[in-house]
Amino acid sequence: MADTTGSGDSSPQLERGWLALKQHVIDNKIRAGLWFTRLLTMIFTISYIIPIFGHSYNIYYKALMSYAATSALRLHQRLPHVQLSRQFLGMLLLEDSCHYLLYSIIFLYILPVTIVLVPIFLFAMLQFASFSLTLLDCLGQNSWWGIRLMISLVEFQSHKILRFCAFSEIIILPYTVFLIFTGRVGLLTPIIYYQFLKLRLASQRNPFTRNMFYEIRSILNTLAKKPAVPDILRKMIEGFLSLTQQMAPGPHFYKIKYNDSEC
């Protein structure tokens, strides 16, 4: 008799949870849309690496397009009123979502490069996990504990994940230069990506790329000063440091803290 009562009590509670979830999605349509496009990015990225469904070549571009949709939707959320003015263009270029809309477009017209999917997958995973927790709370605080545990692990490692995203963004630049010689990208790709990376270094909401950039420069500078380093390698490092010096933003950017609502 006790089992029957318990079962009867849980059914209305579950129904109320689903109704609350449905209402939350209706009230937050854009956030729900972002959650869905980020889920698609994750699915397509995994399907590209482990080609179970469809052709991996096509899935690669689907991952980029789904993240482009995420960036466009996020950009609409941040700047809903489009204006044809210089001020609006300046505001547009400051948005991280604009940076990654550009990022998706850059690599949408070249041959697949696996490392390109790394930052968009990791950003999608972080933001997907954040909103998933909100959705689970609508169903009840004790629901889906297994998924909650996985989300907690992702959020616990968020700092390391963001640092790896930043490292990926930086390392892609010299990699695109290398890909010119293999014929996989054109001459314009590293030039346009260079502009993207400058935008990331000047981001007002995410300092991880900037901090990683300075860490890499510091390591290379220390390496170049070691007597054991061959002269040709030292000159290459010094040339690289000189080339990237103009990419560094002003010192006031160090005070900016990360806002996890972007990308």
Q: What does it look like?
A:
With 263 residues, the chain is mainly α. It has a domain at 18-157. The chain is built from eleven helices and no strands. It has helices at 2-27, 29-49, 56-78, 86-94, 96-106, 117-139, 145-156, 158-182, 188-201, 208-224, 231-245. Helix 10 packs antiparallel against helix 11 (231-245). The chain is elongated, with a radius of gyration of 22 Å. It starts with a helix and ends in an 18-residue tail after the last helix.
In brief:
With 263 residues, this protein is mostly helical. It is built from 11 helices and no strands.
Number of helices: 11
Strand fraction band? under 5%
Gross morphology:
elongated
Please give the number of β-strands. Answer: 0
Membrane topology: Multi-pass membrane protein
Keywords: Membrane, Transmembrane, Transmembrane helix
Main location: membrane
Pfam families: TMEM33_Pom33
Topology:
Blueprint: H1 2-27, H2 29-49, H3 56-78, H4 86-94, H5 96-106, H6 117-139, H7 145-156, H8 158-182, H9 188-201, H10 208-224, H11 231-245
Helix pairs in contact: 1-6, 2-3, 2-6, 3-5, 5-9, 6-7, 6-8, 8-9, 8-10, 10-11
Subcellular location: Membrane
Pfam family, one: TMEM33_Pom33
Main location: membrane
List keywords for this structure.
membrane, TMEM33/Pom33, mainly alpha, PER33/POM33_regulator, disordered N terminus, transmembrane, 263 residues, transmembrane helix
